[in-house]
Every structure is written in structure tokens, then in C-alpha cells.
């Protein structure tokens, strides 16, 4: 069990060892995952996990460490080893904790924890997964197989304390249900999936709805073809739009910027997208998946306008990258246990626009509707973008046949500027979200 | 056998005050009708990471993880539970949780566990673990890399070098009475450079590693080569043109481009997907899936390689599995569960990221055997095409068989000669069919430098790939250069 007392004891031990500053993060998880396939239980995985991460500073030298062994001897050895490591590293004038004044004083109530997870029986979990898969399997005779359905829950508690006297803690919960059916027609198989993911059990889409949607998405891929190489308008569905936002979120994150590894360096105040595009990172939306009362360094989370009416207004910064870039931090420190803070999204989203998704598709005479992107082909240094895509060919404003084995390519700089329409269908299905987007022109490579 | 500093089995028993009887009780708690197999996986992992940027160490970290995973198998069902506190109570608790999927409880009587099993291989005999090498030496290495890379060209504005090393002590005890352990070292050195000319900024990356001692990185000028290569790639990309879009002949260089095999066929031949009949390769053993020139193997027994293991994470010795022989599909990669359910033999490919996960069939080192052509002949045979030598990574849709992999260093081939460099582009194809269009195979088989990490179902494991130079006819290249500008390129 983690406790605020353990965090305080580790901080005191660090002080005794001569550390000038220190912070501790401790995490406890209890998760259960149930996987069923073809109506049989396939895997049941369950565990309780505990980890403690430590960061020590000796003036401007620092090191981090972590352990899952929270015994007194183990923690003393951890402080000792980390001290030795810190002393071997170089003086870095930008390093150090945030100033005490910057730390969160009040923790907003964000509705992150659902106690329903504590009393959810194994049978209930299994039933949800089985019902969801059954809904997919019975949807159409062409659904002949399944990768299965999964119901997962995670209940966690996070404690963060620093030698500045900050000590905070919060609990959270997440629940997810996913189904991956497989359809067969004319000897060719296709799979797709659907899922629901939320902080509150009652907010999960019903198992029937998840299964049915997964089946619909899979069936519509049957008979997919390759198309000829060309340049056309491209419409990204909300799932793939969110993937574009994940790339953008990385490109505005401090560590990439100070390293010179982002295409958005020195662009604050510039137009990077049309007027219709506004993008926020909001850590205090109640009940949302990316919300938290303070960031990985104890700074208050907040709503940051990243792009406002097309103009780049803010980067996302932790303390270190903020100092390097001579900008104020944005409460965006993400903390992997045992590693230095990095930057991550809280709820990072593109604000919804006026257009119904069908209206967006109707506006395209001939183009591509993208529903899945695969492969690593995003170069954030240059913005070059080239990924495998699956979707539908749009002809005279209608989705016609499914397409596959093609790539969509462009450059993120031009793709952002080329956003022509923004959908009204923004739904948070994770911590990064976007509505349907239409991009003026991209290169499709096929045969 | 070389002298081992610690015997894995004794390590866990002594460190955590366990006895053979405790293990038997743990297995007993996991067994019981209808459970037909149970195993315990103990892991103790020490890892260290150092990163240098802007000429100074920005990150130094040390992490210690330990835990035990308990698995109970009943037919196709798996119960899995784990604990990060290794003690008798948690062992039995995890075991009974794992058994929780059994419909009827009962008492199991596992055969006695015998301590002292050793893997048959000794692929990474190490005297000094790289984690034990003084940190000053590693920092010095990173600083030398920084200096070498910056000296290559004044346009190099940023050098990021990192060294990550770990060792894992693992032990598997099974209800079949087997108890076997291993000590698994793994290190990786990585260099990334950013070059700038005006507004044009480009990146280059190079690295390598394996289950080696720290000295490996100092031998044969290895670290100098990584530094110079990362700088060269960043500078090269400053002058690269946009890649073409369309279908063309592609020549893949030797080594890391073997990621093609990993994505196009490797995943599709993992036993779980084929047992469930969700792979595009389902029921295709004995059929032609590649040209006559193509033989592909997965070999976990190559000394010191990143993808090699003395035993897999179920205690099965690793082996060499022929996946494709002269174009004909030969076999699958198996763990115990899927092998048993398919009536096949485990191939030593049951791997897991850590004690927190159950094993799955995974690749080790996957590569194509060499052919007869020289690389010059292969490039010379192409009138218009792409020569791709360095790759970022890839991904595959197992069911449809569609795969992608992204080039980070590529050149146009015009009239049998390399002309100009082009920016990275994603290549896309259909796994069961792409190797049928391999029309030339080089005599220059090379394994990659030791940088691969494969993700499946959220679990990451280190792997290797390898390839001789090959020619693939009519592969789709996902660049941006439109039809009119480079029409000659397209076929």
C-alpha cells in the first residue's frame, strides 16, 4: 500500500542524504481484464501493482529511480543509489523543481473516480464482454469469427510530494469495453473494432451497442479495393482526426521544441490553421479521461488555448522545457514512474465546428474518407506525413466502396492549413479527441 | 557453460525466502480440475538509462522491478494473476485468482518441482553486467559520441545520445515439474542528430546493441560509426527530394529493412492468430506464399543478438524455425498453449514483456537467407525504382494482411543507378502476396544492428530482423510527388 507517509519518509531520507530538492510519485493500481472469444472466457487477468518513483537534485545535478519494493530497506537503498547516480551527472542550470508559488494550492473536484468498480463482480464483467461479442456475431452471417471482446477496469491512486512541502493525492477509475469481429466474404477476411472507454461505469456504451457498431464497421470493409494514385480531398473520421491531434500534441510539447525536433518551433502567434480551427488542452473538465487535479510536478492543471481561430497561442510545457524556452509552464508535466517528467495531453481536443459529418462528405465530389491509419510514418521534425490508410471512396458526395492498401501523404503544416470543414461530432473517447475533419488535398498512393 | 554470477533459481528462493515446497503449493493452488497446466514466472529486473542532449546528461535513471506471474490453463482458457511483491501469501493468492476461471474447484497434485534446471543454450555469457559498469564510463561514451557527431558537419545543431541497459533474472516453474532460470542482459545505444540549413531541419538516427557486455559498444569502432551515421543521415535528408507516390520496383538494402518480413509475414505466422483462424495465412501451410528464391527463418539462438534467448518465457529452449522454404509456407511460431491446441510442438517463441503479462507467440530474430545476386546486379537491373536502406518501423493488419513500413533513407534508381536521395515514405503491401514478387535475392545477408522492439497487444519485446539486398517488383510507395512531376517513375 502506498501512503502519504511513505512519500514524506522518502523525502526526509533524501534530505538526510544531502539532496537539495526531491520529489516522489507513488502509484497504486488494481486492474482486472476479462477477454472472451466465441462466447468462451479466454483470459482473465488481475493484479494489484505498486510503484514508487523518486527524483533527487544535488544543486543542479539530478537523477531519477523507481522500485516496486516499498520496504524501508529498499527505499533507503533507492535514495542512496539515486544520490550516487545524481552526483555522477552534469550540472544543468535549467534543472530543478518548480517554485513553491507555482504549485497547486487547491485541488478541484474533478469526478475522476467511480466506486462502482470496487463492487463489480467477475460474472458481471464476463457477461458484458460476452453480450458485446454476441451482438457482433449475430449482426450479420458474414461475421464468421472474432478476435474476441474485452472488458477492463483500472482503479488507481496517485500520490505526489516534493521537498517544497507539496503533498497531493487523487484517485481515478477507468472502464473499457472493446469488440473485434472478423467478417469473411469471397475468401477475404476483414476485421475492425469498436470500443467504449470512460471514467464512470454508467457512461460506457451498452455492450449491445458496442458489439453492433463493431460489426457494422467490419462488414462495411468487405470487398475493399486498392485505388489509383491521385491527389484528392480527404475526410478524416473522428477516430483518425484524433490521431492527427496526437501528432499535433507531440509537436507542441516542450521537450521536442527545445531540442529543435518539431516543425512548430518559433511559431507562437503565427497562423498555422484556418480561422475555423481552435484546439485546447483542458485538464479540468469534470469526469473526462485526461483530467487530473495537478500535473506530474504538482502544478495546477488548467485550460490552455493551444490554437485559437487558427493562430498558435501556446505550447504545452513542463517546468524544465518552460525554463529552456523562457515561457511560463502550462501544467502539462506527465510523469512516468522512474523517469524525468515529460509533456503529455490532459484532454487535448479540436473544438467542434458547425458541420454535420454527412454534410462534410456531401461536399466532396471525389475523394477519400479515412477510417483507419496504420504505420509510424509521421516525422515531427519536418511535418512529413505518410501513412497506410483504410476507408471509403467518396463519389459525388456519397460513400461508395471500401478501399485499402493505399497511403495518404502530405505535410502536417499544409494539412493543418488545409482544414476546410470541421464537424459537429466531437466526442471524448480518450484523452485526445477531434470531430470529423476535411482536408483540402492530400496525395493518395495506390496502383 | 560459463560461470554465472547468480543461479537464477537460487536467487529467487534465497532473496524471497521461498522453498521448493512453496512453489509446489503455489502451483497446487493454481491447479485443480479442469486446470490442465499451471506455471509461475519470477522476474527481477534492474535497468538503467542515461540520456545526453545539448552536450550534457539530461536524464539518469535506475529502475528496479520484481514480481511473479501465475498462469492456469484450462483448454483454451487462461487465468493470469501477478503480484509485484514476491512472497508466499501473494504467490498463493495470485494462484487462486488465476484459477478463478475454473468452473469447478478441486485439488491439484502437481509433480514435485525440481530445482536446478538450466537452459540448453548459453548465448550471452557475460562476466560484467553493463549495469555494473561505472556510470562515469557510460557518460564518457555519450560525450564522445556528441563530439564525434558535431564534428561531422557544422550543420548538426543537436545530438541526442542515450544508453539503456538492463538485466533480468527470470525463473519458470511449471506443473510439469520443470524449473528453469536464465539471466538476460540487454543494452542499446542510440544516437539521433538534427541538422539545420536555413529553415530546413532534418533528423537522422542510428543505434545498436544486444545481449552483450558494455565493451561491445567500444569494439570495432561501433559507437563512432553510430555517431557518424546519425549525422550523415540528418545531413543527407537536408538535400532529399519528396518521395514519389505510386507503384514501382523497390530494392531493399540489407539488414534492418528485414522489418518487411516481420510485418508482412512474421506476425501473420504467429500461432495464436492461426489457431483462431484470424490470420491472412490461416490454413496455408504447404502453399506457395513467396517466390522460389525466398527462404525465411526465425532463429532465437544466434549468440548475443537482441532477439535471442536461451529459453523463452515459458522455459522452452529457443530454436530455429523455418517459416518459408523456397517459397512454400512451412510452419508457425508457437508458445505452449497454441501449440497444444493446434497439435503442434512449441517452438520456443512463448514470450512476454514482463511478469505482468501472460506469454504469447512472438518472433525472435526473423530473416531471409542469402541468395546468389550481388547488390550491384540487383540495383543495376532496375530501370526506374526506389532503393530503400533505412527504415523507421512498420505495422500490420493480421487479418487483411495489409502491412506498412516506413523508409527513412531512400534513393531513386534511374537506369540501374542510384541518382538522388528522397525523403522517407511509407511502403504498403499485402503480406501473403508481397514475397511472391521478390525477383532477386542478394548474397549479402545482414542482421540489423540490434534496435528492434515489437509491440503486440500492448506488450513490447526486443526482436531482431535481417535481410540480404532484395528486389520486390511493384510495391506501392506512399510519397507525395504527384503524377505530373515524376511520371517517368510510375509504371
Overall description:
The complex is a heterodimer of chains A (447) and B (491). With 447 residues, chain A is of the alpha+beta class. Chain A folds into 2 domains: 4-219, 2-Layer Sandwich (PmbA/TldD fold); 224-447, no CATH class. Helices cover 22% and strands 37% of the residues of chain A. Chain A is built from 9 helices and 20 strands. Chain A has helices at 4-16, 72-88, 122-137, 207-219, 238-251, 254-258, 319-325, 357-362, 412-417; strands at residues 21-37, 40-58, 61-67, 143-162, 167-185, 188-191, 194-198, 230-236, 279-282, 303-308, 311-312, 333-334, 342-343, 348-350, 366-374, 384-395, 398-411, 419-422, 432-433, 437-445. In chain A, the strands form 4 sheets. In chain A, strands 1, 2, 3, 4, 5, 6 and 7 form a 7-stranded antiparallel beta sheet that branches. The longest helix of chain A is centred in the N-terminal third of the chain and has 17 residues, at 72-88. The model of chain A has no long low-confidence stretch (mean pLDDT 96). Chain B is of the alpha+beta class and 491 residues long. Chain B has 2 domains: 8-238, PmbA/TldD superfamily (PmbA/TldD fold, 2-Layer Sandwich); 245-489, no CATH class. Chain B has helices at residues 8-15, 20-30, 88-99, 135-152, 222-238, 259-266, 271-275, 336-342, 375-380, 431-434; strands spanning 37-53, 56-74, 77-83, 156-174, 179-197, 200-210, 245-252, 296-299, 320-325, 328-329, 350-351, 360-361, 365-368, 384-396, 402-414, 417-422, 426-430, 438-441, 446-447, 452-456, 459-467, 470-478. In chain B, the strands form 4 sheets. In chain B, strands 8, 9, 10, 13, 19, 20 and 21 form a 7-stranded mixed beta sheet that branches. Chain B has a 6-stranded antiparallel beta sheet with strand order 3-2-1-4-5-6. Chain B has a 5-stranded mixed barrel with strand order 7-14-15-17-22. The longest helix of chain B is centred in the N-terminal third of the chain and has 18 residues, at 135-152. The radius of gyration of chain B is 24 Å and the shape is globular. The relative contact order of chain B is 0.14. The model of chain B is unreliable at 102-108 and 483-491 (pLDDT under 50). At the A-B interface, strand 2, strand 3, helix 2, strand 6 and strand 16 of A face strand 2, strand 3, helix 3, helix 4 and strand 4 of B. Strand 2 of chain A pairs parallel with strand 3 of chain B.
